[in-house]
Request: fold
Amino acid sequence: MNNVPVMKVGIVAVSRDCFPASLAENRRKALVEAYSRKYDAADLYECPVTIIESETDMVKALEDVQAHACNALCVYLGNFGPEISETLLAKHFEGPKMFCAAAEESQKDLMDGRGDAYCGLLNASYNLALRNVRAYIPAEPVGNAEECADMIHDFLPVARAVYGLAHLKIISFGPRPANFLACNAPIRQLFNLGVEIEEESELDLFEAYQKHADDPRIPDTAGDMAREMGYTAGKEPAMLNRLAQYELTLLDWAEEHRGYRPYVALTTKCWPAFQDMFHFVPCYVNSRLMQKGIPVSCEVDIYGTLSEYIGLCISGRETTLLDINNSVPHDMYDEAIRGKYDYQLTDTFMGFHCGNTCSQLLQNPHLSYQRIMARTHPQEWCDGTIEGDLKPSEITFYRLQSTADSQLRAYAAEGEILPVAARSFGSIGVFAIREMGRFYRYWLIEKNFPHHGAVMFGHYGRAVYDTFRYLGVPAEEIGWNQPADQLYKGENPFHR
Reply:
């Protein structure tokens, strides 16, 4: 299933009428050539219309990029640029947009060849604010052709996430489990982000599951599961047929209920009634849907699956959702981490979930039963988790959340999964994030985040931060693991 957008960026060069239009046009051509040398030329469309002091030229450029199926826009100030027309273009273009500007090329041509785009971008940003238009502006938005090519490439993951959310439907099944308000959050901000949501009962899901009992696709799906988990022929566990039936139920529901939305994510109530009704747990199936590009969060964590989808768009690969779960024991730290890795004990923690992480992200992945649920249910009703230690990797731990009063808040922190045996169950890993202890106390706890965090496998902090800002999260509501010499607001300066 193609569940992540493919972006095509229309590049429109703009020119003010008191500057030579050829300056913007030639710089646009050089930019496209530089991009094509380094990246995939299919990412771009070079619009031949150059906007000068004309709203009609703006309309021509808008129509041209729309006609060429561009779903993202780069307004490139080849010179000072027309502040009204260029920002009107951004206003009327339906999709993520960015602004960048051309640096001057040589000291030998600062008379008639000077473009003044450094100055023009200031006016562009002022006009964007006047029109309430959000746009991505790089950290260093003025550069030569090669540098601006890099800026556009850095924009692509942000554009995928922003466009994906604007065309996403989240389908949820059931309310949060009893005595489990942690994942409850107002849905109003979903609509502000452009996300649609369909809330269904877990009874509806159970009914759909029962109707798939004789689905002729079950043997092939169960066989695929057996191959993934390394079972030899004739040694497959009986639960695979039930898990296959459930997987087909979710896939069909997503396809039949996505409506006009091209992208979809799911979240389900996975305990405690799930075991009573289905007689298995859904964890392994959730991991397989993520492999197909469909995040499925646990415990009806709507903003959890939203966060997973953002990471899927940014990184282009599978993400997962884990509890910020338990501390690393002192003896484990002393034996396996101290002196081997440059981390304090308080930099480490264990990320865990019952078994929702894709098999290719785990060491020795294997199917098992959900040990926590088996404390209150028959063990055979709790089969269906995928277990294994997470493979060592660079990671980005992050989340986008709506607060109780419907305000957006977020965090992102880069770190790694250490090659240290977790000695426990579920999908689990020993994580290390510098200054995690302070980050945990003065951002995650202080700002009332739930225990679920999304994980991208790689360092994507810059892209996820830019995505949060584009989506409208105030800068003061985005947290990160601040270094030791920087206090958090409200942190006791005398504690250390």
Observations:
- The two ends are 51 Å apart (CA to CA).
- The chain has a mean pLDDT of 94.
- The chain has 15 helices and 18 strands.
- The chain has two domains: 9-166, 168-479.
